[in-house]
Amino acid sequence: MRFGLFLILTLLFLGMAGVLSLPPASPPERLLILGLPALGPSWLEKEGQRIPAGCGPEAARLLLWYWDTRLATDLVRSDPEGALATLHTLMGTITVRWEGVEQGLTWPWKFAQGLEAYVQTKLPQVSIRTLSASLREVFDKAVEFLSRGNPPVLLFDWEGRGGIFPNHYALVVGYDQKAEELVVNPGWGYAFQSVPLSDPAVGPAQLFWLEGPGLPLLPGLPAPLPEDCPAVRGYGESAPFLPWWGASRAEELGPGLVLLVWD
Question: In whole angstroms, what is the distance from residue 51 CA to residue 134 CA?
């Protein structure tokens, strides 16, 4: 009797050990978040002057818009213009002239500090985390975060124009593992822009994301596949928009916010 009980307990332990030792499920091949607004480029009125808001505050506003939808909070949605102006101030964004065009410049450390200062006025338990690493590590970490429902902001060098200086912030809203591309909402008036993390010219790169208790992770609620196929712009100024066909499933993350998955 004791031997039989011992044998049963041993088998149960081995079975549980086998379950616990199973590798985590791999992220889907492709993923895309639909429903965030295609904002920007935005301008602000400060001290009687019209100045560019800058891609840093714009990316932060989109990130907080996402969390407003998921948490049913009001970080930015009731006053998006006021939120943008406040983020611009907290981040110490300055106006510079780049290639003959006025643009907003936000230093990476000021981006993180300003975003955290803004968030903690309403979500004091949430903090901002950052990662500076190789392009491959940044890609893998962004895929991991997105597959958990926690989209990060990517700071990268758009088309290698900044040399060793990353010059554009954008919210990551999707990825394609096979192509090693992230998809960002670029803040340029359209929703989806591919960024090839296999191209050394986009480096150096950095990620910023929210972390803390109460942030919901995936999955969402099952949802019907949308009738319209999303289109992602290829990398480059004149690149075409390419349709992303054949999503496997859809999940609702909040009102109007849908996650498309290609398994």
Answer: 33
Distance separating alpha carbons of residues 103 and 118, to the nearest angstrom: 22
Residue 7 maps to a domain: no
| Beta carbons within 8 Å of 92's beta carbon, 6+ residues apart | 106, 107, 110, 114
> 221-223 and 249-254 as β-strands: parallel, antiparallel, unpaired?
antiparallel
Q: Residue 150 sits in a domain of what CATH number?
A: 3.90.70
Q: Is 151 a member of any domain?
A: yes
Read off the DSSP letter of residue 167. Answer: -
Count of domains for the chain: 1
21 DSSP 8-state letter: T
Spatial separation of the C-alpha atoms in residues 190 and 170, rounded to whole Å: 12
Instruction: Say how far apart CA 145 and CA 12 lie, in whole Å.
Output: 34
Question: 119-143 pLDDT, tens per residue?
Answer: 999 999 999 999 999 999 999 999 9
18 part of a folded domain: no
Residue recorded with tokens 């009687």: 48
> In this structure, is residue 9 part of a structural domain?
no
Which helix (H) or strand (E) is 127 found in, with range? strand 127-133
Q: Of 169, 67, 44, nearest to 110 (Cα)?
A: 169
**C-alpha pair distances (Å), 61 with each of 19, 20, 170:** 41, 39, 10
Structural domain of residue 62, as residue ranges? Answer: 37-220
- Can you give the pLDDT at residue 13? 38
Distance separating alpha carbons of residues 126 and 123, to the nearest angstrom: 6
> Beta partners for 176?
30, 181
What is the identity of the amino acid at 166? P
